[in-house]
Design a protein that fits this description.
Layout: H1 3-18, H2 24-30, H3 37-50, H4 52-76, H5 81-84, H6 92-97, H7 106-122, H8 127-146, H9 152-176, H10 182-203, H11 223-248, H12 256-282, H13 287-320
Helix pairs in contact: 2-8, 3-4, 3-12, 3-13, 4-7, 4-9, 4-11, 7-8, 7-9, 8-9, 10-11, 11-13, 12-13
């Protein structure tokens, strides 16, 4: 094992022990700024009431990051640090959510899409916001190593891929504005690629290794649901994005009361979808279908369904005045 790899994690592990784990709770909590509910809610707020264009940029980065991260994970099939070396003992609370393969880091991928994207967009708007976004991203990256759930390679590669997407997505958005049907073409391409990656996850031969107790180290059956979650989120965003920009065309330039109403009504639904959606669908659908549908609804609701609802309500209120 190289110094930049396991030895670095052991160094951080020794630091955790020497300090009595006083930073464990902080980094366990802070790392969630780059995963799941919090990033989705932040991007939804920006998209619905702050700056629609920035919201689209962040969400599109999020979607592409999901696709690339899901593909790279099932292609590389690199085990988690504690599987590769039993000396690595991750923080228990962080280990619970660190499932599947290790490379590249999903937390860092999503964090780069959100916080890296905000830093890029705030560069010409607010230096303070830009610096704050960079600091948050850096701390999330470090947290994955500190908690012992990812190697430096997992983090650095994910960060680099995410930064590449930040650049590419800017070009893609510019390209979509230059042609009448470019948004539809892009969406069709993403859907085809996403379906191909999902099929790849289903038919791929995964390494099968066992621990001393005879238990499979990483169950390949779990890789298909993980991948379908990524592709479902991406497809949900792009279909919702096309439908919204063609048929809804909502505006963030509205009254403070309308903005507050949008958030008060919309965020609880997002939280419900993220927290309870999986359990509801899992009760009557196969796991892979559940993860796909759950992720699809999450991004589709944020980008299209909810804007459609609040636009209809606001238009109806205007008619009464």
């Amino acid at each position: 094992m190289s110094i930049i790899d396991i030895d670095y994690l052991l160094l951080l592990q020794n630091f955790r022990k020497l300090t009595g784990g006083i930073f464990d709770s902080f980094f366990t909590t802070f790392t969630e700024l780059g995963n799941g509910l919090i990033p989705v809610c932040i991007m939804a707020c920006i998209y619905w009431v702050v700056n629609k264009e920035i919201g689209v940029y962040l969400l599109m980065n999020f979607a592409f990051s999901f696709i690339s991260n899901g593909f790279l994970k099932i292609t590389a099939c690199i085990y988690r640090p504690w599987i590769r070396d039993v000396r690595v003992m991750p923080v228990s609370d962080a280990k619970i959510t660190a499932t599947g393969y290790s490379f590249p880091s999903g937390h860092v991928s999503q964090s780069t899409a959100l916080w890296g994207g905000l830093a890029a967009k705030m560069k010409s708007r607010s230096k303070v916001a830009m610096i704050a976004s960079i600091v948050i991203l850096a701390l999330i990256c470090f947290s994955r190593n500190y908690l012992g759930v990812h190697t430096p390679q997992d983090v650095l590669v994910s960060l680099c891929v995410g930064c590449i997407w930040l650049f590419i997505v800017s070009k893609i958005i510019t390209w979509t504005e230059k042609g009448k049907n470019n948004d539809i073409i892009l969406t069709l391409i993403v859907v085809v690629i996403s379906v191909a990656i999902t099929i790849y996850a289903m038919v791929k031969n995964y390494p099968i290794d066992y621990d001393e107790a005879g238990k499979i180290l990483v169950d390949s059956k779990k890789m298909v649901p993980d991948t379908s979650y990524c592709t479902g989120a991406a497809i949900g965003f792009f279909i919702g994005w096309v439908l919204e920009r063609r048929f809804v065309k909502f505006n963030v330039e509205c009254s403070i009361n309308q903005k507050i109403a949008r958030l008060i009504c919309g965020l609880p639904i997002v939280i419900f979808i993220v927290r309870a959606g999986f359990s509801i669908f899992k009760s009557f659908l196969p796991t892979a279908v559940t993860t796909f549908l759950y992720a699809f609804i999450m991004t589709f609701f944020v980008t299209y369904l909810y804007p459609l609802i609040f636009t209809k309500i606001e238009d109806a209120q205007k008619m009464k005045l």
